[in-house]
Amino acid sequence: MSKRIPGPKSRFVQNAVRSRQFPIFVLMMTIIVVVSLRTPAFLSLGNFEDIMLDIAMLAIVSIGQMIVMITTGIDISVGSILAFSAMAVGSMVRANPEITPIIAILFGSLIGAALGCLNSFVITAMKIPPIITTLGTMSFFRGLVYVISQGTWVMSHQLPERFKEFTIQTDLGLPFLVIIALVLGVISYLFVNRIPIGRQIYAVGCNQKAARLAGIRVKRVEFLAYAISGLLSGVAGVMWVSRYAIAANNTATGFETQTIAACVIGGVSVFGGIGNIPGVFLGAFFIGMINNAINLIGISEFWKQAFYGMAIILAVVLDAVFNNRFKNMRAKNGEK
Amino acid sequence: MIPYKKPFDPLSFFLRWEWILVLLIIFISIINSNLSPYFLDFSNLFDMTFNFLEKGFITLPMTYVIISGNLDFSVADILALSSCIMGLAFESGMSIWLSAGLALGLGAIAGLINGNLITRLKIPSFAATLGTAALYRGLTWLLLENRGVTGFPEEFTLIGRGDIPGTEIPIPLVLFFLLFIPAAIFLHRSTFGRYVFAIGGNKEVSRFSGIKNDKIIRTIFIISGIISALSGILISARFGSVRADVVPNATLDVVTIVVLGGVSIAGGSGTLIGVALSMFLLGIVKYGLNLMNIPPQIQIVITGLLLIVSVFIPQIVNRIKKRKEEVKRK
Amino acid sequence: MNRENALPILRLSNIHKSFGGVNALIGVDFDLHPGEIHALVGENGAGKSTLMKIIAGVHQPDEGKISVNDQTVVFSDPLVAQKYGISAIYQEPTLYMDLDIAENIYMGHHPVHEKYPVIRWKEMHEMAKVPLKGLGKEIGTYQKVRGLSIAQMQMVEMAKALSLNAHILVMDEPTSALTQHEVDDLFRIMRQLREKGVAIIFISHRLEEVFEVADRVTILRDGKFVDSKPISELTNDEVIKKMVGRKIQTLFPKKNVKIGSEVLRVENLTKIGLFKDISFSLHSGEILGLAGLVGARRTDVAQTIFGIYSQDSGRIFVFGEEKRFESPSEAMEESLAYVPEDRQMHGLILSMPIKDNITLTNLKKFAGKVGLVNLKEEGSFASSIAERLEIKASGLWQDSQQLSGGNQQKAVLAKWLGTNPKILILDEPTRGIDVGTKEAVHRLMGDLVKQGVAILMISSELPEIIGMSDRIIVMCEGKLTGEFMRGEATQENILKAAMRRNNGS
Questions:
Q1: Angle (deg, nearest 10), helices B250-260 and A130-149
Q2: Average pLDDT in the C392-405 region?
Q3: CB-closest option in B1, B207, B269 to C387
Q4: pLDDT tens-digit profile of A190-247?
Q5: What average pLDDT does range A301-307 have in this prediction?
Q6: B 190-219 near A (Cβ less than 8 A)
Q7: Cβ C363–B194 below 8 Å, yes or no?
Q8: Total H helices, total E strands in chain A
Q9: B321/C351 Cα distance (integer angstroms)
Q10: What is the pLDDT of residue C131?
């Protein structure tokens, strides 16, 4: 009669193996082994440092994309928000070189959050589908970049050294950018796992009707999701202008594709309701690693775009197959 | 006999969205001719059409797609990939016309892939086409890298930038009408078109009524792919080159034109003539912005804003209508 | 367990509710006492589900009063009802498939720390274990809901209700998807709750279960209150009699028509989890009534025959030839037609004009070689059919949304009649429409069978089934449970067959 209920440790292992991320993890390990056999430089520390920075940048924005996707939405304006923040903060730092990096980050996050709220408003109050909204704001925000910059760029020589250094400073053992990513990762993890409104994001994505019946304010949750996505893109923008020491009109074009790729590879479902922070970091890691491997092995770098596309399609297809099978199971359980 | 034809009611006839577009066209034309006395000159107008026609072609199948309740975000990238294939084929010695045919074939295949992802795997169309957009564009970059293919024969570039011999009418304009007229007739008068509206209106009812939803949707996406490829051919002809970074924003423009043309984003309603008017309207708006020396980056701002506004306005109109009806019932 | 002297914790008085001109509830009274299990029974359409939704706050009554503990209340939405301690469990679970059990129970009201809004995970899982332990089965609270059986999902729903301190639980057909063992578990839990003072309203058509677990039963019929008594004072037959006890008015002009040869035969049609071994035959000129209660799966059978779904095993013969339909269009080619139950969701495209809806099923008839529709032909065709069915509309160019319920049903019928079907499947053809239209529909059916059309009519209205059918077959929970010839059938014996379950499912 009594079945052994799995305890916490074995449950963790069971869940990990059955999780959506496990195959990617295995694949990634395989690729690491294969690539490092061919190019031992892959495993070198210096190489790792390079990858880390890319991954960190991608991870930060992908966290926001994950939150939005869990609510069954999407945000393709993240690249434009990032660019706007980069340009705005870059210009600000150029004009006031004494600004500390922390203030710059704060400023960037406020800008990002503001733009994100604009998305939120259009989606929740004007009830325009997220894909259309962010398609429009993607261009709108990018145009705004031009407006505030009046066509000029923020250049490296215009920026104070301290600002350009801070993302890659390793005072705390790891580059600051990586630390920020990890910190944001931990905060987001706690948010979506420990705070009620964070959990409501999953509820809204899983079953909006039930969430409403349970008293959850769906609009508030959606508003928050896009605001967070904007905020994180804003933070990434500050990191960007610091790391690359440039802010231009075409900064981060196409970046949204990478964030979507990181999310779907990391197990986030386009159907909503499923996704977690470790998965997103895994996805970002995977993309960063592939990017790097492509460079190292000497394959044309134009493989990257093709790769993102293939990865997204594959992940979405698997997601759909998974989803369809469960739908059939429910029908058989006599749910009609 | 119960009447089946709507009696002509001037008020509701002229209150249609298409007339508002006409008014806007007249309005913007007036502004533009104040900005430049040459605006209303026929040859100038004809020249202007070159700029928006290629995207205009894609608005035709996109209208079918949106009315059926779907979205196709991969049009710009199918355009890129197919013209890329055409360029490479031409480079390797194939005749330009055969290469163009190859491009059309590729467009059809790309559309077929989209259609299958949506109908067989039940992936929502926005997700499927966002994915294939990345894939197709990525493949384009992979194949072309940073270079461009040039050296097309003059007969070919003529179709993109030339006029009908003896007149000033641009060839693309003629092609557009050759496509537009059957497309409009087909959408509004054929059984296929009626089914497209039905699927967008309620796909369960369509299915229960014996309509082959999946077949129709696959067909629409295949045609979308073919026409995107056609656009790619015309653009390559006009510019005389094929590059991987061609028309990165085309999708936004096309969707905006269709939605501004009165097609509901939810599907089930809209007219092709509204879309054509909207294409023309946006064309002259862009022209006017150019006259005012507003840089393209800001023009995109306006397009993005227009998209959101043109989706929002019908919603408000509907809400007002619904409230009026509720008051009536009480 | 004599609780009749206790004051009712919930009282509904003189509740009226109608939808679009059709009365769902007419002057219904209902009392619920604390700590009682109260069954709500009645045929399909008696108003049980509407009453439940009014109690749950989903609908608001047009007239009448609701009071909780003698205080008049208005449940403007389900949340308000929840605040008064009312929780509803519907047949469709409203759960989050990809979240774990404990979270499903506590979503929206997670237990949090005193000062900060941080969820106390461990405590939540501990709290969640309590109601689940009552099951006897050990399901880990960390398990995702997606993998659970329907019975287990129901347990989670009940745990959810209890976590909200519900003292009134309303359940709609809770046992319809459960095995006998699971039903026993459910009843045990219900009795435990009753001990704690929770009042449970449960809607069921399984009278043997009602007699097993309920303290009192309320019977509704045609939207009206019939009786409310302690279960000990009634017998099974008495309850059935009260459920159907109405005079059958002869509204049905069914003339005798010569019944021809077999046009449709179904053999051992089975779809796993839905229905099993359905066999019957249908002849031209015949009206075969298919009776049953909610959950009998008649619509699933009809939709499988029509090609909307495909069967797992079993054979279908049309005009003697074996067929397997993969889509409705294939069925339509064999002259089948299906008029769905829900005219607004499955029958008409509300955003399209009436004419377009009517001609949707045979547009090809009016299309030339190129596929272009001849509008004049199409229009006059639609017009003549609309006239034949007496559809009341000022013009067929109007949006079908503007039609009344009865006219919408006529429009759906027009749509299918236009295909000249030889086999017509009607799914609840007169549900929710006025008497005048009902009569017209029945007259139409009579005309059709005179022309040799074979009709399979799914109906939950016993008088209609008895009055119109040449033969009646009855289904219960996916199985055939009875067959009657015209003249043999009475409301009681049909209902008995509709409730007859082969135990050990």
A1: 120
A2: 84
A3: B1
A4: 999 999 999 999 999 999 988 988 888 999 999 999 999 999 999 999 999 988 888 8
A5: 83
A6: none
A7: yes
A8: 14, 0
A9: 14
A10: 67
Partner-chain residue, chosen from B117, B301, B312, that has the shortest CB–CB distance to A140: B301
DSSP of C308-375, one letter per residue? SS--SEEEEEETTEEE--SSHHHHHHTTEEEE-S-IIIII--TTSBHHHHHHGGGGGGGB-TTSBB-H
**Chain B interface, best mutation among C18, C305, C306, C352, by max B CB count within 10 A:** C352
Minimal C-alpha gap between C368 and chain B (Å): 9
Of C347, C373, C386, the CB nearest to B205: C347
For chain B, count helices (H), then strands (E): 14, 2
Contact C364 B3 (CB under 8 A): no
Residue found under tokens 């423009």: B253
Apex CA C388: angle with CA C387 and CA C390, to 5°? 60
Best of A20, A190, A195, A206 to substitute, by most chain C Cβ atoms within 10 angstroms, is A206
Q: Scan for tokens 């006999």, then name that residue.
A: B1
- Residue A332 banded pLDDT, cuts 50, 70, 90: very low
Instruction: Please state, in angstroms and rounded to a whole number, the distance separating the CA atoms of residues B159 and B234.
Output: 7
Of A258, A137, A259, A254, the closest CA to residue B245 belongs to A254
Q: Could you tell me if the ipTM is greater than 0.85? A: yes
The crossing angle, in degrees rounded to 10, of helices C150-163 and C180-195 is 10
Of the candidates C82, C123, C129, the one whose C-alpha atom is nearest the C-alpha of residue C101 is C129
Residue C503 has pLDDT above 50, yes or no: no
Q: Which DSSP string corresponds to A76-124?
A: TTHHHHHHHHHHHHHHHHHH-TT--HHHHHHHHHHHHHHHHHHHHHHHH
Strand C336-339 relative to strand C471-476, pairing: unpaired
Those residues of chain B that have pLDDT short of 50 are none
The count of residues in chain B is: 330
List the end-to-end C-alpha distance of chain A, in Å, as a whole number: 32
The reply to whether residue C119 touches residue A194, judged by beta carbons under 8 angstroms, is yes
**CA B105, CA B99: separation in Å to the nearest integer?**
10
Find chains touching chain A: ≥3 CB pairs under 8 Å. Answer: B, C
Q: What is the pLDDT, as a whole number, of residue A328?
A: 63
In terms of CA atoms, which chain A residue is nearest residue C161?
A214
pLDDT at B330: 56
- Two structure tokens written together for B17: 């969205």
Token pair, residue A94, equals 């150029």
